[in-house]
UniProtKB/TrEMBL annotation:
Signal peptide: none annotated. InterPro entries: ChyE-like (IPR044992), Class_I_gatase-like (IPR029062), GATASE (IPR017926). One of its GO terms (cellular component) is cytosol. This is Glutamine amidotransferase. Residues 20-185 form the Glutamine amidotransferase domain. Keywords: Glutamine amidotransferase, Transferase. GO terms for molecular function: transferase activity. The lineage of its organism: Bacteria, Pseudomonadati, Pseudomonadota, Betaproteobacteria, Burkholderiales. SUPFAM superfamilies: Class I glutamine amidotransferase-like.
Length: 235
């Protein structure tokens, strides 16, 4: 029987909790999923769960005129930060947390596909070290970046994008990349992001082939990483 709860804010259906969900359920968490822009997020604010997981999506944090519900989501995250509530953010989720913490989010270098990150010394000393088993290779899928939030510790970088992962104490783990993806789901990503891939001149067969080579290894390392992070956060 679940003894803990996790609220999940999801922005597109195929960018779901993946191996994070596996790690959470293994630790007795019941997951309640809220679709951003569709579902009422009042329960997330009014009855806080043990953990808030904010997932990825193809829109920009700064596109609040086109997607006005983003303001309420950012405000909800800001309140949770102030209350000391624990969070994990992935891609857009990491950007939303950064924005709620007072940092700037803006267009950056587009990175799409499988490539390694370079851990900082703090990253080597964190749960991210589990990704070493996958030679630090992860799935990247973003065009925006962010300044490091006040009080945050940088955990990983790439040559093109310095701020790839950060932590705020043991309250927040935020990742620009996607170690949560299960290889069986990659086709949904290729379909869902077909326009972006075409604009970027990326052949989906390249990502599909590399997923077949490394996807399972990265997913297993990612699940261990999230399990370790949850344990360190007392979740």
């Amino acid at each position: 029987m679940a003894t803990r709860t996790t609220h999940v804010i999801q922005h597109v259906a195929f960018e779901h909790a993946g191996v994070i969900g596996n790690a959470l359920r293994a630790r007795g968490h019941a997951l309640q999923v809220f679709q951003a822009g569709v579902d009422d997020l009042a329960p997330v604010a009014n009855d806080p769960a043990d953990l808030l997981l904010v997932l990825g999506g193809p829109i920009g944090v700064y596109e609040t005129e086109a997607y006005p519900w983003l303001e309420a989501e950012i405000d909800l995250i800001r309140q949770r930060l102030a209350a000391g509530g624990k969070m994990i953010g992935v891609c857009l989720g990491a950007q939303l947390i950064a924005r709620a913490a007072g940092a700037r989010v803006y267009p950056g270098t587009r990175e799409i596909g499988w490539a390694p990150v370079s851990p900082t010394p703090a990253g080597q000393d964190s749960a991210l070290v589990e990704l070493a088993a996958a030679r630090w290779e992860v799935l990247h899928w973003h065009g925006d970046t962010f300044d490091l939030p006040p009080g945050a510790q940088l955990l990983a970088s790439t040559a093109a994008v310095q701020h790839q992962a950060y932590a705020i104490g043991n309250q927040v783990l935020a990742l620009q990349f996607h170690p949560e993806v299960m290889p069986r789901d990659i086709e949904a990503w290729l379909i869902g992001h077909t326009v972006e891939l075409a604009k970027a001149g990326i052949d989906p067969r390249t990502i599909r082939a590399r997923t077949a080579e490394v996807g399972a290894t990265v997913a297993a390392a990612g699940e261990r990483m999230f399990a370790r992070s949850l344990e360190e956060a007392g979740l």
